[in-house]
Design a protein that fits this description.
Blueprint (H helix, E strand, L loop, with lengths): L1 E5 L3 H12 L3 E5 L3 H16 L9 H10 E4 L10 E4 L5 H14 L5 E4 L6 H5 L4 H4 L2 E6 L8 E6 L5 H13 L3 E4 L8 H17 L5 H11 L6 H8 L1 H15 L7 H8 L19
Parallel strand pairs: 1-2, 1-4, 2-3, 4-5, 5-6, 7-8
Antiparallel strand pairs: 6-7
GO molecular function: (3S)-3-hydroxyacyl-CoA dehydrogenase (NAD+) activity
InterPro entries: 3-OHacyl-CoA_DH (IPR022694), 3-OHacyl-CoA_DH_CS (IPR006180), 3-OHacyl-CoA_DH_NAD-bd (IPR006176), 3HC_DH_C (IPR006108), 6-PGluconate_DH-like_C_sf (IPR008927), 6PGD_dom2 (IPR013328), NAD(P)-bd_dom_sf (IPR036291)
Pfam families: 3HCDH, 3HCDH_N
Amino acid sequence: MKAAVVGAGLMGAEIALVFALAGHEALLHDRSDDALAAAMARLRTILDKGVARQFYAPEAAQAALARLQPVSTLGAMADCALVTEAVYESIEAKAAVLCALDNVCQPACIIASNTSTLPIATLAVALPLARRARFLGTHYFSPVSRMKLVEVVPGFATDPAVLDAVVAVLTGIGKEPVPVRDVAGFAVNRMLHALLIEAVKLVEEGVATPADLDLACRLGLGHPIGPFAMMDIVTSDLCLQVQDILHDAYGERFRPPALLKQRVAAGLGGGKGRAGWIGTDRND
């Protein structure tokens, strides 16, 4: 099968990689040549470190980059069977990509969105009625090369046979697909951000430090990573964006804490080269 991913960020690049690791020809697109080059370098590092070898045969890891092709135009995806949109979490940005894909993809192509919070029914409006039966959400989890879960989210018009086909494809590339209903935040993000919001409130109230709460979650709840270390990896900026979406959808229970907003505004969102929660626990 020939697959493609639009958006060469942290998520999109690794989505393309796992398809290539599973033996599929995979295209990776970004509108920036620099972003494409950086993504390919990052994927080489992942393979060089042997991370992917924990989940895939050594020969698959060695051959994956040969099957992964960076492309600068969406027209290269004209003969793909599955295209995944993985640009940033904005209705306008995703809608623009979906419209462009509708213009280049064959009618039989399945188009998926790697949104983590936006309703699939809302995104489907960007596509003509005839295309919506072959459109759905596939919410991967970061880092995609390690995390097996994918939430699979059909829209109102998604053909059940398309849902079944995507579940089979995801299983074939080593993922564990879980179908969920199309609601804002789907299932996992609603649970996760309820935890993150309460964790930040505990820090606001002076109950415990971020480092100690991370330790408590690892030792007491069996979590592989604490909530503050997780926010530092995915960035507090993204967490705030997701919580704003959930707050709009569900009201007060998902209102972002004031401390989270303050830290994001102060540039303490974590991520590459930026301070985050761990090691910068002072609230002043």
